[in-house]
Amino acid sequence: MGFLVGPWLAQAVRAAVDLSLAEHLADGPRTAAEIAEAEGADPGATARFLRACASMGLVTYAEGGFAGTELLTVLHRDAPMSLRDLAASQSSACMWQTWARIPEAIRSGEAQTTQALGMSFFDYLAAHPDEGALFGAAMASMSAPVIREAVEVIDTAGATTVVDVGGAHGSFALAMLAKHPGLEAIVLDLPHSVPGAQAAAAESGLADRFTAVAGDFFKEVPPGDILLLKFILHDWSDDDCVLLLSNCRDALRPGGRIVITEIVIDDHSPGIAPLMDIAMLASAGSRERTLAEFDDLLSRAGLRRSTATPVEPPYVVIEATTAV
């Protein structure tokens, strides 16, 4: 039953985000009536919803009302590792309609976004800028714990320019700039991501060393010493990955390297990795890969792996250089 009611749980979390439950309870307990009034919601339905949230561990009963739990705090917009945007994005209509076609994805081995949305996933985001902005923010929040560890293991010796390829709002590039004052960064992504990247750079006080560029990484990648590919290759087929990696190889300055941050999967991977693999099948017709499969992609693109460093499980930072 826990598996079967999974959709209820996901949409309840989305409702908690939509009602700003974490923010309302941040300063102490409140009653259902107070929250309903603040949100313009039905008081009876709000009370019933809070009862459901208590059963999920998001809130507890307190002082005639409800108090937030530690679990709820990750849905606060200002939490250090907030999952608010991710919760909203992953339970949004575009995702939900695609996940509903997972059986068809398994039968066909193909992406289901065209059948679900009428177009490819990234075309849909470009056509719906509000959802595109939410997706970019969601990827930034999902990336935060991985980025925090990845920046600690990336060697920047001799580098002056880092290029965040497909970097959305530039969270990885900005983390690199914050740690290494001598670096400058370029973020390359589709046009709908550029305003969010510029806003994130301004908010972090790093805009003077940061440039957001709109473009297509299947056509050209800006030159740099370190090229970051975080959660990118799992979006694409093997042939597309080879084309992208080849463009990255051509963009490398002498002595430069490509840094790939992805899930590395095997037949015994626990937890989220095998589920993410199926999600990528349905949404993009793509996959999570084994280390051997990454090595094959790199070889086909004229590159070779130099290191593979585990960070936040199940993610690994893979560094590659031009093959000699």
Q: Could you characterize what this model shows?
A:
The protein is α/β, with parallel strands linked by helices and 324 residues long. The protein has two domains: 2-82, Winged helix-like DNA-binding domain superfamily/Winged helix DNA-binding domain (Arc Repressor Mutant, subunit A, Orthogonal Bundle); 93-322, Rossmann fold, CATH 3.40.50.150. The protein is 49% helix and 18% strand. It has 16 helices and nine strands. The protein has helices spanning 6-18, 21-24, 32-39, 43-56, 70-73, 84-90, 93-99, 102-108, 113-117, 121-127, 129-153, 171-179, 194-204, 238-251, 272-284, 291-300; strands spanning 59-62, 65-68, 161-165, 184-189, 210-214, 224-230, 252-263, 303-310, 315-322. A seven-stranded mixed β-sheet has the order 5-4-3-6-7-9-8, sandwiched between helices. Helix 10 packs across helix 11.
